[in-house]
Amino acid sequence: MSATSRLRGLLIGAFLLVILSSFAACTFQPATIDESTSTATPEPTGTSLPAATPEPTGTSLPAATPEPIGTSLSVATATVAAFVTRQADEVNEAVADSSALWDQTTIGVCWDTPGFENEKIWVQDAVARTWMQESALEFVGWQQCEPDSDGIRITVADVADPGPHVAVLGAHLDGLEEGMVLNFTFDNWGNGENNTVDCGFPEDRRKFCIDAIAVHEFGHAIALTHEANRPDAPEWCRDMAQGTNGDWLITPFDLDSIMNYCNPVWSNAGFLSELDIQAVRLMYGENNFPIGSLLAVEGRLTFLRVHDVGTGYGPNNDFLDVEVVIQLDTYPGKSFGFQLRTDDQEYAHKGMLDLLRDAFNEDYRVRVDYVQTGLRNGEILRVLVLP
Fold it and tell me: In this predicted structure, what is the pLDDT of residue 69?
């Protein structure tokens, strides 16, 4: 055999070895979350406990668009460490049901089940740092449901079958009792039995599961289906198909998607993949006002709160270090505030409080200039009472 022939043989052998190694590394976990297409029997609604973060209740008003002012201030950035190491590097497509797309980006959310105040805040934070942070979507309300509440209605139930799920996709959830079912206790489902992940203890593991499942189910709530249901999913992954088939292939097949049961990282550790982010932006638009933007809003006060120095307001990922907090009828779910301390802004801030108190008592419209400090909240710079 010539030297050329021997070299060609070695190259072919090395190429085949790489291909076989790639197939050997392609593993997946069993499905652990069930999205049932049937609606469970509604449970009776109890009395609401006080919410940790007061927000307007009832049907939300259409959200107006904040008015940009001048040049954006410096943008705060943060790096989030992944909960687990990715086991696959390939970026391969989100899929959605186009008939279930919401026709607005502000979507109301309420709870049909009372109690579980800490867990409800965990869910709200998880949705805020994913779908809301990466798109124009805003989920507002998060209070106890009324009999005629619109939007996404969530029931908390620990049932072995079907487990956490949505009854239908996307906008078809609007006003549907038990439209979404989440589990916070994991005694009957998610306890490590019957091929489910163990979510019960310790406490940080329980929170991790609550967060990850919420992000997955809210993916369905915005009309995304499972990646395994795609016609172009690999054959080994299509065995995991479950629930409704989508009709809009928004991106290519995505092994890393939060919506993919074939993902080697369970529920993608509660994070969106790059293609998940691309998909939600194509569906509902981008978040056009990054942290640090200087914006303005107008409306009537629905909420005015003054509290002790250092108390602050809002969830950890959208916290306002302020003593005065307001909310407006035109921006349900958003909060604005400023500090009331002994410093060089003391008299200006006392003057703003006087204006806001008068506007609240007399039902005047106000204009508020503010700096975007989080997903929903902002720090007030100026207040103007409108005629």
Answer: 53
Interatomic CA distance for residues 130 and 282, integer angstroms: 15
Domains, the chain, ordered by start? 89-284 (3.40.390.10), 294-385 (2.40.50)
Residue 210 to residue 353: CA distance in whole angstroms: 39
What's the pLDDT score for residue 67?
Answer: 57
Q: How far apart, in Å, are the Cα atoms of 171 and each of 102, 109, 113, 168, 272?
A: 5, 12, 21, 9, 21
Q: What is the largest CA-CA distance in the chain?
A: 98
- In terms of Cβ atoms closer than 10 Å to its own Cβ (0-12, 13-18, 19+), residue 207 is middle
Which amino acid would we find at residue 174?
D
Q: Can you give the pLDDT at residue 183?
A: 93
Scanning 143-186, the segments in alpha helix (DSSP H) are none
Please report the beta strands in 225-265, taking only residues with DSSP state E, as ranges in sequence order. Answer: 248-249
pTM (2 d.p.): 0.60
CA distances from 72 to 81, 206, 295, 372, 373 (A): 27, 39, 9, 10, 12
Question: Going by C-beta distance under 8 Å and a sequence separation of 6 or more, which residues neighbour residue 343?
Answer: none
Tell how far CA 155 is from the center of its chain. 17
Query: How high is the pLDDT of residue 258?
Result: 93
Residue 298 CA to residue 178 CA, distance in Å, equals 35
pLDDT recorded at residue 119:
93
Q: State residue 255's pLDDT score.
A: 92
C-alpha–C-alpha distance, residues 262 and 254, integer Å? 10
**What are the phi and psi torsion angles at 143 (to 5°)?**
-105, -175
Asked if residue 219 lies in contact with residue 69, where contact means CB atoms within 8 angstroms, the answer is no
The pLDDT assigned to 128 comes to 85
The answer to whether 204 and 219 have CB atoms below 8 angstroms apart is no
Which residues of the chain carry a pLDDT beneath 50? 1-64, 70-93
